[in-house]
Amino acid sequence: MSHDQILRDLKAGKVQPVYFLHGTEPYFIDLVSNYAEKELLSEAEQGFNLTVLYGKDTDHLAVLDAARRYPMMAPLQVVVLKEAQDMKSLPELINYVEKPTPTTALFICHKHKKFNTATKFGTALKSHAVILESKELYDNQMPAWIQDYLKSRQLKITPAALHLVIEYLGTNLSKVANELDKLALNLPAGTEVSETHIETHIGISKDYNVFELQKALGERNVQRVGRIVNYFGANPKSSPLIATIASLYNYFSRVYMLQFVPGKSDKEQAEAMQLRNMYFLRDYKTAAANYPRRKLEDIIGYLHEYDLKSKGVNIDSANYEDGDLLRELVWKILH
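User: That's the sequence. What structure does it adopt?
Assistant: Structure tokens below.
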């Protein structure tokens, strides 16, 4: 089942005896376990009927002892086993899974990796438990996820602000959700989130970020590039060099791909470039006009070279700062 389906059932009072939540994305597992821990029981009921255990500090016997108890002055008790991936005796719960206590809701949270359900214990889970496999989102799924998340909080977002959030926060859903919640707390319902809102409430500069650097390089705007690079050098934590180079590599790789689809429609060009948002196509076209194919091949080589240098490989001096490396790199790109 999906996390949405499980949450809908829990909110409707359709509670099952055993839930097994596993996978590489902890965010969806946390959504379900947090609801179970905080919402399934009233505050008064939680004192006697909520047990939270941690896999590293417990074993199957303690889990069995908690799960087989009967609730006190309530129709249900909740047992949450967190970090189950650290409990060596986890498969020993097989007998309980096959015959659970009907007045207990046991939530087993196996985070950061997929559990092998082809095992004997896994077979028992598939037959007797509600299973959530929590998968990480792909990069191309992030725009829709962020838009839906903000929509649920009665907010919209501009394409530029969306791109900024994705590139700077990545696909760590817990981190992204935490930052988006800041927007929801500070902005009135119906607001369309802009780059200015992102800068004010999340702290990502709307003027000095890797997208503005990409745009300035694409336009060959030397003065603008210089100001951004100087800002990055003075504020290394705002844009780590390794992340900046990775973003520039993705950017110039797309510009290079655009060279091979001349005369195609905007939609066909965007598909060829694996571009998530048509809004930025014009910026790529500007860069494609300013950089011939041979120069783009050189740039991709420079980016590979400086990616290694940023990691301490093939660098002449240990005294090089990240800002120095970035200045060298953009000089080679522009000249």
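The first strand starts at residue 18 and ends at 23.
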